[in-house]
Amino acid sequence: MKSLRTIAITAAILGILDSIYLLIIKVSNNKALCIQGVGDCWSVNTSRYSEVFGIPLSVLGIIAYAVILTLWILLPRSDFFKRNIPIVNFMLSLIGVIYSAYLTYLEIAVIKAICPFCVVSAILLVILFVVSLIQLIQGPGDE
Fold this sequence. Notes:
By secondary structure, this protein is an all-alpha fold. The protein has 5 helices and 2 strands, in the order ααββααα.
């Protein structure tokens, strides 16, 4: 269980960092921060799909990854957490993977550009989903 927890905490921290970088690109409006020649993060990050109700998706990503990180950190603290956090982790990561798949579809089919930082986020969400699924199947364990 500890190795799953380490993988999840690492993925969540990387997700926060990735989302912060995307937010910096968004608020600074600095195209030079996008890696030139690797995808087209600028087109994706400035598209109308990069915000929900005026909130940049990167802010939502920071919040989601921070919540997931917090849950994984709290997991070994009590039996209550060991019993309940796995299902919450699973549901949050499932929602994240589904929404990320939708955003990837928008990138490919509508925007016709791929953001490498968004791909990193999608991969991290899949990792978090798989780890949370394994955790859910294994059940509460001793830390």
